[in-house]
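Hi R.,

Here's the input for the copper (II) ion complex you asked about:
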Amino acid sequence: MSKARANELHEELYRPSPPEVMVIQQSPKRKMDARNTWEITFTEQDLEGLSLPHNDALVLSIPFQRKLVRRVLVDQGSSAEILFYSAFKALGLSKDQLTSNHKMVVVEADGNYVQPFAVEDMDIYSGESYSVLLTTDQDPSQNYWVSISVRGRKPQTPQGLTILHYLHHPKTSLIPTRPPPVAPLWNNYTHSKLFTTKILALMGTPQPPTTTHRRIALLNTQNYIDGYTKWAINNLSLVLPSTPYLGALKYSINNAFDGEKLPENFPMDYDVMNPATNQNSSYGSGVYMLDFNTTVDVILQNANALAENTSEIHPWHLHGHDFWVLGYGEGRFSDQKENNFNLRNPPFRNTAVIFPYGWTALRFVADNPGAWAFHCHIEPHLHMGMGVVFAEGVHLVGKVPHEALTCGLTGKMFMGGNSKP
Ligand SMILES: [Cu+2]
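And here is the predicted structure with copper (II) ion in place:
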């Protein structure tokens, strides 16, 4: 492909994005290093036409033994599989089948703009929302497969398929000539992480405070209570009390839920990579009380579930706020990992996943008076205890609607007689 055509394609791909200011450091001519190899670096020429951070593999050319050697450099944290055409031929795939077709340009996540990037497939977890732009720039006489498949758990169902058809181009057969796309394997977490870490806030998105007032680390474990399988957070499995939290807090009904201070960390020696030695847990209904208008960091820590070699994806969703996703990491979180938090352009969202055996760091400002659920958005997991409750500035909440006071102790207090709050 010619450079002009490559630039043209790039222009097309990035058309939805607003103008960006791109600063590229002047790099001197490539020079030999002490081991007599050519220094591997990009020149302005290599980066021409690319927005940074880039979404495409970059090709670097280096003169070596009078030959021009090209190396493909992949972003930090990404991976690439390079297959020779002969491998595709052996699989019976023609060149026509290998050319990519429509791409989705991701522009928004959970109601906030993100830096646009193009993908052929994307992960959407329960509770998340995205906007993508699709350009109808392919052969209009063809029909195209759209495919949906299960992520994170071994699918028990076939992929869902539908057909993309260009208007005003009647076809005798609706079935596309190419086979349906092959979905990434359900447990290809490298693929999932590659997509997730591409999501960065667009310039102009609110930025996080640079420091925090409080950090709450939440260990996600699968446990037993009375022989039943449950999920627990810092070894407490959430059960919602019969009295609604908001009324209980607003009217200071002290015995409506567990009143003791909740754990903000988990044992230093907890091994997140293996099943727990003690798999029992207990129920809890307490609330993390947050000082109004303070900044709170939440570290979501994943762990091994009850079965060996099992750790799953959980999409955590916060009510009443957006949070910044400051980073993802493997294994157990440690204080030093904070040095790598993204404070420059973290996505501003209300749902974020924890990957198997990994952690996710979030920051939010407790500036919305009320009592708020923060929970795994896989519905059965919430009802098995995978959630916590935050509350802040409840004294600032005005009148609580009757409908929110009809149960439990508030029901007895306000709805039993004629008295009204
Ligand atoms: Cu879950």
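One thing worth noting: The helical segments are 3-13, 44-47, 85-90, 95-98, 189-196, 245-250, 379-383, 408-415.

Cheers,
M.
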